[in-house]
Amino acid sequence: SSLVIQNKARLVAVGYSQQEGIDYDETFTPVIQIEAIRLFLAYVAHKDFTVFQIDVKTVFLNGILREEVYVGQPLGFFSKQYLDHVYALDKALCGLKQAPRVWYDVLS
User: Fold this and answer.
1) Average model confidence (pLDDT) across the chain
2) Is 62 exposed, middle or buried (0-12, 13-18, 19+ CB in 10 A)?
3) Which of 4, 13, 21, 100 could bond to 93 as cystine, CB 3.0-4.6 Å?
4) Per-residue pLDDT band at 1 (split at 50, 70, 90)
5) 3-state SS class at 107
6) Residues 6+ away with beta carbon under 8 Å from 83
């Protein structure tokens, strides 16, 4: 059958084209040191605890952007009537330099 029931699209930002100081200011996010991981795992093994792991696939899509970010219309989804229009982002996209920082802001 050629009946389309649902369409999905995934927007990904071209973060490598962003310029520091122009397109973004802060990009840092805290990272744990390997010594802390080793200490944690040694403690877990000593106490015979069970460790669980979680991976959030949409983690970078939950952060609210502090600055204004605009993206062009995706190929195949542009409006012929408004060719010069862009999209203003409210939340981070995968690929943005700001995505890790705004995700950490959600957690803290």
Assistant:
1) 83
2) middle
3) 13
4) low
5) helix
6) 73
- How far apart are alpha carbons 35 and 19 in whole angstroms? 33
104: which 2 tokens? 């950490």
Length in residues, the chain: 108
Sign of CA pseudo-dihedral 56, 12, 94, 85: negative
Extract the tokens encoding 61. 């899509």
Could you give the count of Cα atoms lying within 13 Å of 61 in the half-sphere of its Cβ?
A: 6
CA distance 100 to 27: 7
* CA distance linking residue 102 with residue 65, whole number of Å: 6
> Which stretches does DSSP call E strand in 1-108?
64-71, 87-91
Cα separation, 40 vs 55, in Å, equals 19
DSSP string, 5-33: ----------GGG--BTTTBS--------
